[in-house]
Amino acid sequence: MIKHHLHPEILLSYAAGNTSSSESLIVASHITVCSKCRREVETFEKLGGKLLEESDSVDVNASSLDSIMSKISDHVSVDNASDVVSTNAVFKNIPSVLRKYLPDGSNLTENWSKGIGGIKYFDIDLGNSNQNTRARMLSIPPGKKLPHHGHESQELTLVIQGGFSDENGSYDVGDVAIEDEKNIHTPISDSKEGCICLVVYEGNLKFKGPLGPILNFLKI
Amino acid sequence: MFLENTFETANLSAKMSYINYKQDKTYKVLKPAVKDEELTNLIGLVATKKDKTAFSNLFKLVGPRIKGYLMKLGSNDIVAEDLLQEVMLTVWRKSETFDRSKAAVSTWLFTIARNKRIDMLRKEIRPQLDPMDPMLTPNEEESADDAYGSKQESLKITDAINLLPDEQSILIKMTYYEDKSHSMIAEELKMPLGTVKSRIRLASTRLKKLLEGNIHD
Question: Which residues of chain A register pLDDT less than 50?
Answer without folding.
Answer: 78-82, 205-209, 220
